[in-house]
Amino acid sequence: MARSDVIEARIGKLIGGFGRYVPVYDDRVPFTSEQLTAHRKTITMRRQAGSLRAAVENEQFVRSLRRTLVAWGLDQRASRLVSQPDFMAALVAALPRVEAVEHLRIDGNDLPADIAERLWKLVQSLGVVENKAKIVAGTKTLHHLLPDLVPPMDRAWTGTFFQFHRPEWQDEGGQRRIFTLAYNQFGSVARQVRPEHYVTGERWRTSRTKILDNALIGFCKAEVGKAQEPTIEEDTANQVSFEVTGYPPAKNEALSMLGRATARVTLLLATARRACAEQGFLCISSAPVGLDVVVYAPAGQNPADATNYLGGIGDVLEHKAHRGALDHLGDLAGVWLYRNDRQIKAVTYREIDADRVSYTVTIKEL
Asked: If DSSP codes are grouped into helix, strand and coil, which group holds residue 101?
């Protein structure tokens, strides 16, 4: 079943059973008392401040917000918060853009049609973390600044519900796509279930958007099972994920694929080189390798099959010294992620219907 069909079915079920899924979260909440205490303190201070500007200009509130983000899992593994002074400076710098949407509510009839795009630009430019992945830190920050407009999102539960894949959380294009998809769906649910009716102020029932998040997690607990929360080992593994525009190079192009600098080959190599530098990936000389590929394309328009794509990607990303002179590739000839594609011992491949053609690649040392 296509991901779009899965999401449509889940959204329908979430709306129909919203009143049941909120209590499921209450009964089976997956977070700690420390996380709840930090969240409630920050939300209370935000409400008491009245205006967004008053909150952001209050150093105690900003410190409480940053402590909440740490309690919620930021500033560890690969997601590093900026220092406290830089954190406050980032919020102050973003203040005019955030104030422009301060009056909006996720279930409001006056919500602009482009609100998801506007919020994505805020998430992307907020500047509260040092890493390239912005959605988790951005939405958790904005949630505490705009608790009735922005729901918190994470890989564990939001990712599970919408079937988002790890590379989509890394690449800028993928992040934009999944954020706007998720936000628009949250908005659609909000307008039909009126989440403010469930906001009691008790425990985790603190705002419209937290109720939406609670219900989504309750759905996953009741209907899906285990979330795709990464373990520390997974998150610190030697791996790299990236998205490439267009179709992958295919194995049936083998005679010409590396013999001349085809556009698909050079784009894959250039993107891989950039991602490796940004994500601190170390080339895998001898260890087993896992390869994950997801191809996004309009239904029925994919010109090749899984085996050809996997073979093509494998040939391009291996060490290419044994292939003779590749001067036409320039410095891209020296880009490699593993010594030989015979190291690949685990493969996953999926095709997902999408309007825009692209593919994601994840290489992991096993």
From this structure: coil
Contact 116, 183 (CB under 8 A): yes
**pLDDT the model gives residue 226:** 58
* Residue 176: half-sphere exposure toward Cβ, Cα within 13 Å: 10
For residue 103, give Cα distances in angstroms to 65, 97, 124, 125. Answer: 20, 12, 21, 20
Q: How many CB atoms lie within 10 A of CB 231?
A: 8
Residues of the chain with pLDDT under 50: 230-236, 254-255
Nearest to 70 by CA among 132, 127, 140: 140
* Whether the model pTM is above 0.70: no
The C-alpha angle 115, 116, 121, rounded to 5 degrees, equals 95
CA 187 vs CA 78, 142, 241, 325: distances in Å: 30, 16, 29, 55
User: In 141-180, which positions are buried (b, 16+ CB within 10 angstroms) versus exposed (e)?
Assistant: bbbbbbbbbbbbbbbbbbbbbbbbbbbbbbbeebbbbbbb
Residue pair 243/171 in contact (Cβ under 8 Å)? The answer is: yes
Residue 323 has a pLDDT of 65
Pick the closest to residue 175 from 239, 243, 271 (CA basis): 243
Q: 207-242: per-residue pLDDT in tens?
A: 999 999 999 999 998 888 655 554 433 444 688 888
- d(CA 118, CA 134) in angstroms, rounded, equals 15
- Residue spans per domain, the chain: 3-224, 237-365
- In this prediction, residue 129 carries a pLDDT of 84
Superfamily of domain 237-365: Holliday junction resolvase RusA (3.30.1330.70)
Q: In this predicted structure, what is the pLDDT of residue 255?
A: 47
